[in-house]
Design a protein that fits this description.
This is non-specific serine/threonine protein kinase. By secondary structure, the chain is an alpha+beta fold. It contains 14 helices and eight strands. It has two domains: 157 residues, no CATH class; 220 residues, Orthogonal Bundle (Transferase(Phosphotransferase), domain 1). Helix 4 packs antiparallel against helix 8 and helix 12 packs antiparallel against helix 13.
Length: 392
């Protein structure tokens, strides 16, 4: 598999930078045929090697079960080990995809997408979740905007396949983590690589300053391919073998995870509902913060109760951490005054939804946000919901 990286010099550059994606030739036996892929390189420490092996096993099962590549999940093309100065790095060769959905929201200046666009994206995610849950018995456990990638780039000129120009690398920022699907045009000259990287960073910085301006409306997204794939299965687990009690990124975390009452597929459905809301409004549904006398977990539960009503006794009493947050009456111990506002009213008053759009959207979302995980609909059931088939 050394053919994935072209020269010893560039090989060393890659190991130093720990770059997560690059341009390579996927047909080393037929060099006249080239294809863009993404390369995810893990750190060499033992714990990272173990995590990489787990992800490779998960991705292998996902790819094997989807030979026609129609389930809207990222595929593993190949994997190999690379010996660098600090040890061996596990490398995964993945499909080349576009930006994540967070970048789409940023591109749209943090404004909500049109409901037809939200529906299109939701269908892709639900097909992926139905495949993972029903066919593979896999729980993603970290579903969020950053872990869902568009089929291609938002701006066609930035797509090497559509534009015919080689992409350039920039280092992922701390906020983007290790999941950014940027690519490296492998050059024989390190100097040229650095020059191109600097130019890329400058262009991206300029773009950020423009799209994140205050008071501007959303962009026209017509013509953008909104098909997307669920990716990053590093934290995924089999239903029969849960890996950790604390899962999910904070803003997308389900209540049963907070109180530690056990989890299964419904945690992904809760996260999906949070994603759908964020796509439609441009803002996260829940953004908890710790305050004087209460924790981030408690604020998170309070925000849920303000929007969705009182948490049932089953959850306020039976979780391993329920007693840390709730009294015997099912009320929060340290946050007593809640500002209740229904989800439908929030959409109309804050996000200027029409009454009809808000009512229809809430009809789709609310069952997914049921505090009782057993009552949440499955991905398969969601795909049959009338809201997904509204044409206007």
């Amino acid at each position: 598999m050394k053919d994935w990286i072209r020269t010893e010099k560039e090989d060393t550059m890659l190991s130093k930078l720990l770059i997560h994606s690059l341009v390579v030739d996927t047909s080393p036996k037929r060099n006249s045929v080239g294809k863009y892929v993404a390369l995810k390189i893990q750190k060499s420490a033992p714990q990272f090697a173990e995590a990489a092996l787990h992800e490779i096993q998960i991705l292998s099962a996902i790819t094997k079960g989807d030979p026609s590549n129609t389930k809207f999940v990222g595929h593993l093309i190949d994997h190999f080990k690379h010996a660098g100065p600090n040890g061996q790095h596990s490398c995964m060769v993945l499909e080349f995809l576009g930006e994540n959905l967070l970048r789409l929201i940023k591109y749209n200046r943090y404004k909500g997408l049109a409901m037809t666009q939200v529906r299109e994206i939701c269908k892709c995610i639900l097909i992926a979740l139905d495949y993972l849950h029903r066919e593979l018995k896999l729980i993603h456990t970290d579903l969020k905007l950053e872990n869902i990638l568009l089929y291609s780039t938002i701006v066609p000129s930035k797509d090497p396949v559509r534009s015919g120009t080689a992409p350039v690398l920039r280092r992922p920022t701390a906020s983007e983590g290790t999941n950014s699907n940027y690519v490296l045009a492998v050059n024989s000259s390190e100097k040229k690589l650095k020059q191109k990287a600097r130019k890329a960073v400058a262009r991206i910085s300029e773009r950020r300053g423009f799209v994140e301006g205050v008071g501007k409306g959303g962009r026209c997204l017509d013509g953008i391919d909104l098909r997307c794939k669920v990716v990053d299965f590093g934290n995924a687990c089999w239903e029969s073998k849960p890996l950790a009690q604390e899962i999910q990124t904070r803003q997308y975390r389900a209540p049963e995870v907070i109180v530690e009452s056990g989890y299964s597929f419904p945690v992904d459905m809760w996260s999906f509902a949070c994603i759908a809301f964020e796509l439609a409004t441009g803002e996260m549904m829940f953004t908890p913060t710790a305050g004087e006398g209460y924790s981030e977990d408690e604020d998170h539960l309070a925000l849920m109760m303000e929007l969705l009503g009182k948490i049932p006794r089953k959850m306020t009493a039976c979780g391993a951490r329920s007693k840390d947050y709730f009294n015997k009456y099912g009320d929060l111990k340290r946050i007593r005054r809640l500002k209740n506002l229904s989800l439908e009213k929030l959409l109309v008053e804050k996000y200027t939804f029409s009454v009809t759009d808000a009512h229809e959207f809430v009809g789709f979302l609310c069952p997914l946000l049921d505090f009782d995980p057993e009552k949440r609909p499955t991905a398969q059931q969601c795909l049959q919901h009338p809201w997904l088939n509204i044409s206007s």
